Protein backbone atom coordinates (compact mmCIF):
# COMPACT_ATOMS: atom_id res chain seq x y z
CA UNK A 1 0.00 0.00 0.00
CA UNK A 2 1.09 3.64 -0.25
CA UNK A 3 3.22 4.84 2.68
CA UNK A 4 0.39 7.13 3.81
CA UNK A 5 -2.56 4.97 2.88
CA UNK A 6 -6.19 5.94 3.29
CA UNK A 7 -9.31 4.18 2.11
CA UNK A 8 -9.75 0.48 1.51
CA UNK A 9 -7.29 -2.29 0.78
CA UNK A 10 -5.31 -0.36 -1.79
CA UNK A 11 -2.79 -1.89 -4.15
CA UNK A 12 0.91 -1.31 -3.64
CA UNK A 13 4.16 -2.55 -5.11
CA UNK A 14 3.45 -6.08 -3.85
CA UNK A 15 -0.20 -6.05 -4.96
CA UNK A 16 -2.73 -5.78 -2.12
CA UNK A 17 -3.56 -7.53 1.13
CA UNK A 18 -5.92 -10.44 0.41
CA UNK A 19 -8.46 -12.21 2.58
CA UNK A 20 -7.17 -15.31 4.39
CA UNK A 21 -10.74 -16.67 4.42
CA UNK A 22 -12.01 -16.33 0.83
CA UNK A 23 -10.11 -14.46 -1.86
CA UNK A 24 -13.26 -13.82 -3.87
CA UNK A 25 -13.93 -11.04 -1.37
CA UNK A 26 -11.98 -8.08 0.01
CA UNK A 27 -10.45 -8.34 3.49
CA UNK A 28 -12.08 -5.08 4.65
CA UNK A 29 -14.80 -2.59 3.73
CA UNK A 30 -14.37 -1.31 0.20
CA UNK A 31 -13.38 2.29 0.99
CA UNK A 32 -12.31 1.88 4.60
CA UNK A 33 -9.56 -0.45 5.69
CA UNK A 34 -6.12 1.04 5.27
CA UNK A 35 -5.25 -0.99 8.39
CA UNK A 36 -6.24 -4.21 6.62
CA UNK A 37 -2.63 -5.38 6.80
CA UNK A 38 -2.79 -5.26 10.59
CA UNK A 39 -6.10 -7.14 10.60
CA UNK A 40 -5.01 -9.89 8.21
CA UNK A 41 -1.63 -10.30 9.90
CA UNK A 42 -3.28 -10.76 13.29
CA UNK A 43 -5.98 -13.10 11.96
CA UNK A 44 -3.48 -15.28 10.10
CA UNK A 45 -1.20 -15.57 13.13
CA UNK A 46 1.77 -13.74 11.63
CA UNK A 47 1.82 -11.62 14.81
CA UNK A 48 -0.02 -11.90 18.14
CA UNK A 49 -1.29 -8.30 17.97
CA UNK A 50 -1.60 -5.52 15.42
CA UNK A 51 -1.74 -1.74 15.76
CA UNK A 52 -3.80 -0.02 13.12
CA UNK A 53 -5.29 3.45 12.92
CA UNK A 54 -8.77 4.60 12.05
CA UNK A 55 -10.40 7.70 10.60
CA UNK A 56 -13.79 6.27 9.57
CA UNK A 57 -13.67 2.50 10.10
CA UNK A 58 -10.20 1.48 8.94
CA UNK A 59 -9.65 -0.41 12.19
CA UNK A 60 -13.14 -1.80 12.82
CA UNK A 61 -13.70 -2.99 9.25
CA UNK A 62 -10.67 -5.32 8.89
CA UNK A 63 -11.30 -6.60 12.43
CA UNK A 64 -14.84 -7.62 11.51
CA UNK A 65 -14.11 -9.10 8.09
CA UNK A 66 -11.12 -11.08 9.39
CA UNK A 67 -12.85 -12.46 12.48
CA UNK A 68 -10.72 -10.81 15.17
CA UNK A 69 -11.19 -8.27 17.96
CA UNK A 70 -10.73 -4.57 17.22
CA UNK A 71 -11.06 -1.62 19.59
CA UNK A 72 -11.74 1.93 18.39
CA UNK A 73 -11.28 4.31 21.36
CA UNK A 74 -12.66 7.73 22.17
CA UNK A 75 -10.41 10.64 21.26
CA UNK A 76 -7.52 10.97 23.67
CA UNK A 77 -7.86 7.55 25.32
CA UNK A 78 -4.87 6.14 23.47
CA UNK A 79 -2.12 8.64 22.53
CA UNK A 80 -1.90 9.33 18.80
CA UNK A 81 1.61 10.74 18.64
CA UNK A 82 3.30 9.92 15.33
CA UNK A 83 0.04 8.71 13.75
CA UNK A 84 0.00 10.65 10.50
CA UNK A 85 -2.84 13.23 10.51
CA UNK A 86 -5.11 12.08 7.72
CA UNK A 87 -8.12 13.62 9.48
CA UNK A 88 -6.90 14.87 12.89
CA UNK A 89 -10.35 15.31 14.44
CA UNK A 90 -11.21 11.66 13.74
CA UNK A 91 -7.90 9.76 13.79
CA UNK A 92 -7.45 7.16 16.55
CA UNK A 93 -5.15 4.20 17.16
CA UNK A 94 -6.97 0.84 16.84
CA UNK A 95 -5.38 -2.30 18.32
CA UNK A 96 -6.16 -5.73 16.80
CA UNK A 97 -6.05 -9.00 18.75
CA UNK A 98 -7.46 -12.52 18.49
CA UNK A 99 -9.35 -12.33 21.80
CA UNK A 100 -10.82 -9.73 24.14
CA UNK A 101 -8.46 -10.96 26.87
CA UNK A 102 -5.51 -10.16 24.61
CA UNK A 103 -7.05 -6.75 23.89
CA UNK A 104 -7.21 -5.99 27.61
CA UNK A 105 -3.51 -6.85 27.91
CA UNK A 106 -2.67 -4.51 25.01
CA UNK A 107 -4.74 -1.65 26.44
CA UNK A 108 -2.91 -2.04 29.74
CA UNK A 109 0.21 -0.96 27.84
CA UNK A 110 -0.97 1.57 25.25
CA UNK A 111 -3.58 3.48 27.29
CA UNK A 112 -1.09 5.58 29.19
CA UNK A 113 -0.13 9.23 29.64
CA UNK A 114 2.48 10.58 27.23
CA UNK A 115 5.21 12.85 28.65
CA UNK A 116 4.68 15.27 25.75
CA UNK A 117 1.70 16.11 23.54
CA UNK A 118 3.69 17.11 20.46
CA UNK A 119 2.11 15.61 17.36
CA UNK A 120 -1.13 14.64 19.14
CA UNK A 121 -3.98 16.85 17.88
CA UNK A 122 -6.36 16.18 20.77
CA UNK A 123 -3.70 16.79 23.42
CA UNK A 124 -2.70 20.17 21.97
CA UNK A 125 -6.13 21.65 21.17
CA UNK A 126 -7.77 23.77 23.88
CA UNK A 127 -11.41 23.85 22.74
CA UNK A 128 -12.66 20.58 24.21
CA UNK A 129 -11.67 18.97 27.48
CA UNK A 130 -9.88 15.67 26.97
CA UNK A 131 -9.21 13.41 29.93
CA UNK A 132 -5.78 12.00 30.62
CA UNK A 133 -5.54 8.26 30.07
CA UNK A 134 -4.68 7.79 33.74
CA UNK A 135 -7.91 9.55 34.76
CA UNK A 136 -10.26 7.20 32.92
CA UNK A 137 -8.57 3.80 32.79
CA UNK A 138 -8.85 1.04 35.39
CA UNK A 139 -5.78 0.13 37.42
CA UNK A 140 -5.66 -3.14 35.49
CA UNK A 141 -7.77 -3.96 32.45
CA UNK A 142 -7.85 -7.59 33.53
CA UNK A 143 -10.37 -6.48 36.18
CA UNK A 144 -12.88 -6.08 33.33
CA UNK A 145 -13.02 -9.82 32.61
CA UNK A 146 -16.57 -10.41 33.85
CA UNK A 147 -18.46 -13.26 32.12
CA UNK A 148 -21.72 -12.07 33.73
CA UNK A 149 -21.38 -8.45 32.58
CA UNK A 150 -24.42 -8.59 30.26
CA UNK A 151 -26.86 -9.76 32.92
CA UNK A 152 -29.82 -7.35 33.24
CA UNK A 153 -28.28 -4.91 30.74
CA UNK A 154 -30.48 -3.07 28.23
CA UNK A 155 -28.89 -2.76 24.78
CA UNK A 156 -30.05 -0.76 21.77
CA UNK A 157 -29.70 -1.85 18.15
CA UNK A 158 -30.26 0.79 15.44
CA UNK A 159 -33.05 -0.43 13.17
CA UNK A 160 -31.25 0.92 10.11
CA UNK A 161 -28.51 -1.71 10.58
CA UNK A 162 -30.82 -4.73 10.84
CA UNK A 163 -32.84 -4.17 7.68
CA UNK A 164 -35.73 -2.25 9.22
CA UNK A 165 -35.23 1.10 7.54
CA UNK A 166 -34.16 4.50 8.77
CA UNK A 167 -35.37 8.09 8.66
CA UNK A 168 -32.12 9.37 7.21
CA UNK A 169 -32.01 10.81 3.71
CA UNK A 170 -29.41 8.25 2.67
CA UNK A 171 -30.15 4.85 1.17
CA UNK A 172 -30.82 2.04 3.62
CA UNK A 173 -27.60 0.22 4.56
CA UNK A 174 -26.96 -3.23 3.11
CA UNK A 175 -28.02 -6.22 5.22
CA UNK A 176 -27.16 -9.57 3.63
CA UNK A 177 -29.32 -12.59 4.46
CA UNK A 178 -26.34 -14.48 5.87
CA UNK A 179 -25.51 -11.56 8.16
CA UNK A 180 -29.17 -11.40 9.19
CA UNK A 181 -28.91 -15.04 10.31
CA UNK A 182 -25.77 -14.29 12.32
CA UNK A 183 -27.42 -11.24 13.87
CA UNK A 184 -30.47 -13.25 14.97
CA UNK A 185 -28.17 -15.80 16.59
CA UNK A 186 -26.18 -13.03 18.28
CA UNK A 187 -29.42 -11.55 19.60
CA UNK A 188 -30.36 -14.92 21.10
CA UNK A 189 -26.90 -15.21 22.63
CA UNK A 190 -27.21 -11.77 24.22
CA UNK A 191 -30.63 -12.58 25.63
CA UNK A 192 -29.35 -15.91 26.96
CA UNK A 193 -26.66 -13.94 28.79
CA UNK A 194 -29.37 -11.87 30.48
CA UNK A 195 -29.46 -8.77 28.28
CA UNK A 196 -32.57 -7.24 26.75
CA UNK A 197 -32.42 -5.91 23.18
CA UNK A 198 -34.33 -2.77 22.14
CA UNK A 199 -34.68 -1.66 18.51
CA UNK A 200 -34.21 2.10 18.16
CA UNK A 201 -33.56 4.87 15.68
CA UNK A 202 -30.02 6.24 15.42
CA UNK A 203 -30.30 10.04 15.72
CA UNK A 204 -26.53 10.50 15.80
CA UNK A 205 -25.96 8.82 12.43
CA UNK A 206 -29.19 10.14 10.90
CA UNK A 207 -28.45 13.78 11.75
CA UNK A 208 -24.80 13.45 10.84
CA UNK A 209 -25.50 12.09 7.36
CA UNK A 210 -28.49 14.32 6.60
CA UNK A 211 -27.80 17.09 4.08
CA UNK A 212 -29.42 20.12 5.75
CA UNK A 213 -28.05 22.41 3.05
CA UNK A 214 -28.14 20.72 -0.39
CA UNK A 215 -24.86 21.04 -2.21
CA UNK A 216 -22.87 21.76 0.95
CA UNK A 217 -21.11 19.34 3.25
CA UNK A 218 -22.69 20.62 6.48
CA UNK A 219 -23.32 17.96 9.11
CA UNK A 220 -25.26 20.04 11.66
CA UNK A 221 -27.81 22.87 11.27
CA UNK A 222 -27.34 26.36 12.68
CA UNK A 223 -23.62 26.70 12.14
CA UNK A 224 -22.43 29.89 13.91
CA UNK A 225 -20.03 32.37 12.37
CA UNK A 226 -16.41 31.38 12.53
CA UNK A 227 -17.29 27.77 11.89
CA UNK A 228 -14.18 27.00 9.86
CA UNK A 229 -11.72 24.70 11.59
CA UNK A 230 -8.73 26.36 13.20
CA UNK A 231 -5.60 26.55 11.08
CA UNK A 232 -3.66 25.19 14.07
CA UNK A 233 -3.75 21.75 12.45
CA UNK A 234 -1.13 22.85 9.94
CA UNK A 235 1.87 22.28 12.24
CA UNK A 236 0.94 18.61 12.25
CA UNK A 237 1.70 18.52 8.53
CA UNK A 238 5.04 20.31 8.92
CA UNK A 239 7.13 17.18 8.22
CA UNK A 240 5.41 16.72 4.85
CA UNK A 241 6.86 18.16 1.65
CA UNK A 242 3.64 19.87 0.59
CA UNK A 243 1.42 20.80 3.56
CA UNK A 244 -2.28 21.03 2.79
CA UNK A 245 -3.49 24.62 2.57
CA UNK A 246 -7.21 23.95 2.88
CA UNK A 247 -9.26 21.68 5.08
CA UNK A 248 -11.78 19.18 3.67
CA UNK A 249 -15.23 20.67 3.09
CA UNK A 250 -16.84 18.06 5.33
CA UNK A 251 -14.50 19.06 8.14
CA UNK A 252 -15.58 22.71 8.29
CA UNK A 253 -17.68 22.67 11.44
CA UNK A 254 -17.23 23.82 15.02
CA UNK A 255 -16.57 20.68 16.96
CA UNK A 256 -17.09 22.21 20.40
CA UNK A 257 -20.64 23.16 19.38
CA UNK A 258 -21.31 19.69 18.01
CA UNK A 259 -20.11 18.04 21.21
CA UNK A 260 -22.08 20.51 23.34
CA UNK A 261 -25.25 19.85 21.32
CA UNK A 262 -25.01 16.10 21.82
CA UNK A 263 -24.11 16.42 25.50
CA UNK A 264 -27.15 18.61 26.30
CA UNK A 265 -29.71 17.28 23.81
CA UNK A 266 -33.00 16.57 25.65
CA UNK A 267 -33.64 13.58 23.39
CA UNK A 268 -30.28 11.94 23.99
CA UNK A 269 -30.12 8.16 24.26
CA UNK A 270 -26.41 8.06 25.06
CA UNK A 271 -26.96 6.19 28.31
CA UNK A 272 -28.27 3.26 26.25
CA UNK A 273 -25.29 1.31 24.85
CA UNK A 274 -25.56 0.32 21.20
CA UNK A 275 -24.56 -2.93 19.61
CA UNK A 276 -25.13 -3.80 15.98
CA UNK A 277 -23.67 -5.81 13.08
CA UNK A 278 -20.36 -4.16 12.24
CA UNK A 279 -20.99 -4.40 8.50
CA UNK A 280 -23.99 -5.21 6.32
CA UNK A 281 -22.11 -7.25 3.71
CA UNK A 282 -18.61 -7.77 2.30
CA UNK A 283 -17.35 -6.34 -1.02
CA UNK A 284 -16.20 -8.57 -3.86
CA UNK A 285 -12.54 -8.63 -4.82
CA UNK A 286 -13.39 -7.72 -8.43
CA UNK A 287 -15.15 -4.46 -7.47
CA UNK A 288 -12.51 -2.46 -9.39
CA UNK A 289 -13.27 -4.39 -12.58
CA UNK A 290 -16.98 -5.32 -12.59
CA UNK A 291 -19.62 -2.58 -12.51
CA UNK A 292 -22.19 -4.57 -10.53
CA UNK A 293 -19.57 -5.46 -7.92
CA UNK A 294 -18.55 -1.80 -7.66
CA UNK A 295 -22.16 -0.67 -7.23
CA UNK A 296 -22.61 -3.16 -4.41
CA UNK A 297 -19.30 -2.16 -2.80
CA UNK A 298 -20.41 1.48 -2.61
CA UNK A 299 -23.54 0.74 -0.56
CA UNK A 300 -23.74 1.85 3.05
CA UNK A 301 -22.59 -0.96 5.29
CA UNK A 302 -20.23 -2.25 2.57
CA UNK A 303 -18.27 0.87 1.64
CA UNK A 304 -17.66 1.64 5.34
CA UNK A 305 -18.49 -0.16 8.56
CA UNK A 306 -21.90 0.69 10.02
CA UNK A 307 -21.75 3.96 11.91
CA UNK A 308 -19.37 5.48 9.34
CA UNK A 309 -17.48 8.65 10.24
CA UNK A 310 -20.13 9.77 12.74
CA UNK A 311 -18.70 7.51 15.43
CA UNK A 312 -15.22 8.97 15.11
CA UNK A 313 -16.34 12.61 14.82
CA UNK A 314 -18.48 12.22 17.95
CA UNK A 315 -15.82 10.32 19.95
CA UNK A 316 -17.95 7.17 20.18
CA UNK A 317 -15.86 4.18 21.34
CA UNK A 318 -16.59 0.76 19.84
CA UNK A 319 -15.24 -2.75 20.21
CA UNK A 320 -15.78 -5.43 17.59
CA UNK A 321 -16.01 -9.15 18.43
CA UNK A 322 -16.58 -12.11 16.05
CA UNK A 323 -20.13 -13.41 15.53
CA UNK A 324 -19.43 -16.25 13.11
CA UNK A 325 -19.04 -17.07 9.42
CA UNK A 326 -21.40 -16.00 6.61
CA UNK A 327 -22.96 -19.23 5.33
CA UNK A 328 -22.99 -18.18 1.67
CA UNK A 329 -19.62 -16.42 1.39
CA UNK A 330 -17.56 -18.13 4.09
CA UNK A 331 -16.38 -14.76 5.38
CA UNK A 332 -16.28 -13.82 9.08
CA UNK A 333 -18.18 -10.81 10.40
CA UNK A 334 -18.44 -9.16 13.78
CA UNK A 335 -20.72 -7.46 16.27
CA UNK A 336 -19.89 -3.94 17.44
CA UNK A 337 -20.54 -2.72 20.98
CA UNK A 338 -20.60 1.10 21.06
CA UNK A 339 -21.45 3.72 23.67
CA UNK A 340 -20.97 7.31 24.74
CA UNK A 341 -17.45 8.68 25.03
CA UNK A 342 -15.14 7.08 27.61
CA UNK A 343 -17.46 4.18 28.45
CA UNK A 344 -14.75 1.75 27.36
CA UNK A 345 -14.91 -0.11 30.66
CA UNK A 346 -18.52 -1.19 30.14
CA UNK A 347 -18.02 -1.97 26.45
CA UNK A 348 -14.99 -4.15 27.12
CA UNK A 349 -16.89 -6.03 29.84
CA UNK A 350 -19.80 -6.69 27.47
CA UNK A 351 -17.47 -7.83 24.69
CA UNK A 352 -15.63 -10.18 27.06
CA UNK A 353 -18.89 -11.72 28.31
CA UNK A 354 -20.19 -12.22 24.76
CA UNK A 355 -16.94 -13.74 23.49
CA UNK A 356 -16.54 -16.01 26.51
CA UNK A 357 -20.03 -17.45 25.99
CA UNK A 358 -19.96 -17.81 22.19
CA UNK A 359 -16.36 -18.45 21.05
CA UNK A 360 -17.17 -17.67 17.42
CA UNK A 361 -13.64 -17.03 16.19
CA UNK A 362 -12.07 -19.65 13.91
CA UNK A 363 -8.67 -19.68 12.21
CA UNK A 364 -8.78 -18.50 8.57
CA UNK A 365 -8.84 -21.58 6.28
CA UNK A 366 -6.20 -20.20 3.89
CA UNK A 367 -3.64 -19.64 6.65
CA UNK A 368 -0.64 -21.99 6.26
CA UNK A 369 -0.36 -24.48 9.10
CA UNK A 370 2.66 -24.89 11.38
CA UNK A 371 4.36 -28.17 12.14
CA UNK A 372 3.50 -27.60 15.80
CA UNK A 373 -0.26 -27.45 15.06
CA UNK A 374 -0.48 -31.23 15.30
CA UNK A 375 1.69 -33.80 17.08
CA UNK A 376 2.44 -37.24 15.70
CA UNK A 377 2.07 -40.14 18.13
CA UNK A 378 3.42 -43.68 18.00
CA UNK A 379 0.85 -44.86 20.55
CA UNK A 380 -2.05 -46.92 19.14
CA UNK A 381 -5.13 -48.22 20.94
CA UNK A 382 -6.30 -51.80 20.49
CA UNK A 383 -9.92 -50.62 20.66
CA UNK A 384 -9.96 -46.94 19.66
CA UNK A 385 -13.09 -44.89 20.49
CA UNK A 386 -15.61 -44.38 17.71
CA UNK A 387 -15.34 -40.59 17.92
CA UNK A 388 -12.59 -38.04 18.31
CA UNK A 389 -11.93 -37.23 21.94
CA UNK A 390 -10.03 -34.11 22.93
CA UNK A 391 -7.92 -34.00 26.06
CA UNK A 392 -8.76 -31.47 28.75
CA UNK A 393 -5.78 -29.36 29.78
CA UNK A 394 -6.11 -27.31 32.97
CA UNK A 395 -3.39 -24.94 34.18
CA UNK A 396 -3.50 -24.57 37.97
CA UNK A 397 -0.26 -22.70 38.67
CA UNK A 398 1.57 -20.17 36.51
CA UNK A 399 4.52 -18.02 37.46
CA UNK A 400 6.97 -15.81 35.58
CA UNK A 401 10.45 -14.81 36.71
CA UNK A 402 12.32 -12.15 34.75
CA UNK A 403 16.11 -12.14 34.44
CA UNK A 404 18.13 -9.31 32.91
CA UNK A 405 20.95 -10.47 30.64
CA UNK A 406 22.62 -7.32 29.38
CA UNK A 407 19.96 -5.26 27.61
CA UNK A 408 17.73 -8.32 27.10
CA UNK A 409 15.07 -9.48 29.55
CA UNK A 410 14.64 -13.27 29.68
CA UNK A 411 11.42 -14.57 31.19
CA UNK A 412 11.30 -18.03 32.78
CA UNK A 413 7.73 -19.35 32.74
CA UNK A 414 6.65 -22.19 35.05
CA UNK A 415 3.30 -23.96 34.52
CA UNK A 416 1.62 -26.72 36.50
CA UNK A 417 -1.68 -28.40 35.76
CA UNK A 418 -3.52 -31.56 34.75
CA UNK A 419 -4.27 -33.23 31.43
CA UNK A 420 -7.19 -35.66 31.31
CA UNK A 421 -9.81 -37.26 29.06
CA UNK A 422 -13.34 -38.46 29.75
CA UNK A 423 -12.61 -41.51 27.56
CA UNK A 424 -11.41 -44.14 30.05
CA UNK A 425 -9.55 -46.13 27.37
CA UNK A 426 -7.28 -43.18 26.65
CA UNK A 427 -4.21 -42.17 28.58
CA UNK A 428 -1.78 -39.30 28.24
CA UNK A 429 1.32 -40.55 26.42
CA UNK A 430 3.31 -37.32 26.49
CA UNK A 431 2.91 -33.57 26.69
CA UNK A 432 4.70 -31.08 24.48
CA UNK A 433 4.68 -27.32 25.00
CA UNK A 434 5.50 -24.76 22.32
CA UNK A 435 6.38 -21.07 22.55
CA UNK A 436 6.04 -19.11 19.30
CA UNK A 437 6.06 -22.40 17.43
CA UNK A 438 9.30 -23.59 19.02
CA UNK A 439 9.45 -26.53 21.48
CA UNK A 440 9.95 -25.47 25.09
CA UNK A 441 12.20 -27.05 27.69
CA UNK A 442 11.57 -30.59 28.91
CA UNK A 443 8.07 -31.21 30.26
CA UNK A 444 7.92 -33.51 33.29
CA UNK A 445 4.82 -35.68 33.78
CA UNK A 446 3.94 -37.15 37.17
CA UNK A 447 1.41 -40.00 37.27
CA UNK A 448 -0.97 -41.35 34.64
CA UNK A 449 -4.06 -42.49 36.49
CA UNK A 450 -7.61 -43.13 35.24
CA UNK A 451 -10.22 -40.49 35.95
CA UNK A 452 -13.18 -41.38 38.18
CA UNK A 453 -16.00 -39.70 36.25
CA UNK A 454 -18.19 -39.83 39.37
CA UNK A 455 -15.68 -37.82 41.36
CA UNK A 456 -12.82 -35.36 40.95
CA UNK A 457 -9.81 -36.17 38.72
CA UNK A 458 -7.16 -38.27 40.42
CA UNK A 459 -4.10 -37.31 38.36
CA UNK A 460 -1.09 -35.94 40.08
CA UNK A 461 -0.05 -32.40 39.05
CA UNK A 462 1.81 -32.29 35.74
CA UNK A 463 4.59 -29.70 35.65
From TrEMBL:
Chain intervals for the UniProt region annotation (Disordered): 1-20
InterPro entries: Amidase_dom, AS_sf
Domain Amidase: 10-206
Organism: Verticillium dahliae (strain VdLs.17 / ATCC MYA-4575 / FGSC 10137)
UniProt protein name: Glutamyl-tRNA(Gln) amidotransferase subunit A
